[in-house]
Amino acid sequence: MVIYEKAPAKINLTLDVLHKRNDGYHEVEMLMTTIDLADRLSFEKLDSNQVVIASENRFVPNDRRNLAYQAATLIKERYNIKEGVRIHLDKKIPVAAGLAGGSSDAAATLRGVSRLFGLQLSQEELQEIGAEIGSDVPFCVMGGTALATGRGEKLTPLPSPPPCWVVLAKPNIGVSTKDVYSKVQFDDMRHPATKAAISALKQQDFKTLCTTLGNVLEPITTSMHPEVLQIKSRMEKTGGDGVLMSGSGPTVFSLVAKEEKADRIYNSLRGFCSEVYAVRMLR
Ligand code: ATP
User: What band does 148 get if pLDDT is binned at 50, 70 and 90?
Assistant: First the structure.
């Protein structure tokens, strides 16, 4: 039997860092939403007690550094499963892009392995296991749109943004999330208007939502990689309704209400940037 799971990417509508905690993590406040750009994972039982990861993407590790491997191992240990699993990752989400590809694969693996072995775990249980793997995994288990607080694992579900297009462009550079967070400074930080963004979501007010997008990590990443700013300004000039860098970058996205405009932005970026996507928001 082979079973399949989709692992959608997320974007940050807001990302705020409130303070550094005694345990070394940053206390964050982020509005996150899933988009229709997804990896596809398949799961098959193995007789031998192993977790085998297969992927054609050369940037994706196939050993225990892979978050899908960690998720499968954790769930197997916790529920004392002696059979193994082969996981194939068909990667569509760009790697190390600020789109939580690895975390979403981990979440899809928790769902997939739970189904494969008939564990019937609730979403809360999967979220709790996910938090042991990474701060973004619980959100990826839940999907949709949410306010994430704590180190990102405490979730309040919210209405998804009004239907629109999301154009994404990733410059050909790698950004280390750890490195970006290590450069966070709290003086002069321009915090995003998270409350206003939440009320825009509740009122399904697309225009206000676009004006409230904000990410405190953006100036840090752009100071190291000016190409991120170039993409941002190109998106703004070609008519993006709201433009922001997602996560620690380097992917920049634009929310766009009209399809023709999304096409225009997509086409203007394609000659400039190798990885460009135009997708729908997931509801
Ligand atoms: P984060 O913001 O959590 O660092 P990201 O979206 O910026 O995530 P990912 O695509 O998750 O980036 O990849 C970050 C690193 O994690 C990669 O460099 C890769 O080596 C490693 N990794 C582990 N598992 C996976 C996976 N399943 N898919 C992609 N990368 C993975």
Answer: very high
Q: What is the pTM of this model?
A: 0.96
As a whole number of angstroms, the distance between CA 95 and CA 32 comes to: 18
- On the question of pLDDT at 204 being above 80, the answer is yes
Enumerate the β-bridge partners of residue 12. Answer: 32
**pLDDT above 70 covers what percent of the chain?**
100
The dihedral built from the CA positions of residue 87, 88, 92 and 95, taken in this order, carries a sign that is positive
pLDDT digits (tens, 9 = 90+) for 34-56: 999 999 999 999 999 999 999 99
For position 274, what pLDDT does the model report?
84
Regarding the beta carbon of 212 and ligand 1, being less than 6 Å apart is answered no
Best mutation site among 28, 66, 245 for ligand 1 pocket (most ligand atoms within 8 Å of CB) = 66
- Nearest to 199, CA basis, from 54, 1, 31: 31
Q: How far apart are CA 14 and CA 146, in angstroms?
A: 11
Nearest CA to ligand 1 atom 30: 102
d(CA 169, CA 231): 7
For ligand 1, mutation pick of 25, 26, 43, 60 (most atoms within 8 Å of CB): 60
Residue 12 CA to residue 125 CA, distance in Å, equals: 24
